[in-house]
Amino acid sequence: HQAKVALLQVPDRPGIAAQLFGQVADADINVDLVIQSINEGNFNDIAFTVDEAMLPQAQKLAESLQPSLQGSASEADAAAIITDAQIAKVSIAGAGMIGRPGVAAKMFSTLAAAGVNIQMISTSEVKVSCSIHTDDCDRAVSTLCNTFKIAHSPIPAASTQPSAPASGASTPAVRGAALDRKQARVAIRHIPDRPGMAARVFELLAEHHISVDTIIQSQRCRMVNDQPTRDIAFTVAQGDASETKALLNGIAPDLGCGDITVDEAIAHLCFPKVFALLLGIHFLFGQLHLEANGH
Known about the structure:
Elements: E1 2-11, H1 16-26, E2 31-36, E3 43-51, H2 55-70, E4 80-93, H3 102-113, E5 120-124, E6 127-133, H4 137-148, E7 152-154, E8 178-180, E9 183-192, H5 197-207, E10 212-217, E11 222-224, E12 227-237, H6 241-255, E13 260-263, E14 268-270, H7 273-276, E15 289-293
Parallel strand pairs: 7-15
Antiparallel strand pairs: 1-3, 1-4, 2-3, 4-6, 4-15, 5-6, 5-10, 8-14, 9-12, 9-13, 10-12, 11-12
Helix pairs in contact: 1-2, 3-5, 5-6
């Protein structure tokens, strides 16, 4: 099992994430997913997942940072911490998804058809990960394996003991980074939190051959008109931004979502896929495989 730690209303200023994850690393806590929400005003939410056995330690560390994260916020806007020990992660991974805009949409629609609600989404060039409730894990794994005709690779639980230095400890953990200045971020506010919403968005874009790079679904669930909602943000090529917004505006009334915004004043910084092998991402070139961290 995995567990989630979320810090809400964190000041949107440089160094906050570095402060948090620097201390997490010093405590030798292995982090899996990291998701930062779309900022609202001067605040963000930051959520991360750890092995369930590490939750008490991770929660204690986050609570120790809470006073320094409040800054000049009012009491109503003070940083808050929530945890959830009932989550699992399912991922599809492989170089076979590069340049194929429909892969993520197919994953989301498969989970929706199985009645699995997605709590958080995080993606890279070669991996799509979804956090779901632990009760849905077996059903999600089974239906994804059947849909993609792929094998299931259980992810071993992280050790609660300090990690031993790697045999190649002198080898830098990161050997390169890539900067893309020609992307735009599209944000969908307050999309209803129920199975099938992400699928509808990304199936539409796939039908129009719009490739999506990074996808983030925020962890915080907000009530809007008595309906639980979440925010979804993703990046596309700047040349596709206008068409993407027009397509989404066309289905917005049916989705029941809030504002759709586009921000072209962004840059995408990432590790190139050629270096991902060094970071422990498993590849099956030309294929996909499934990873699950649940039961």
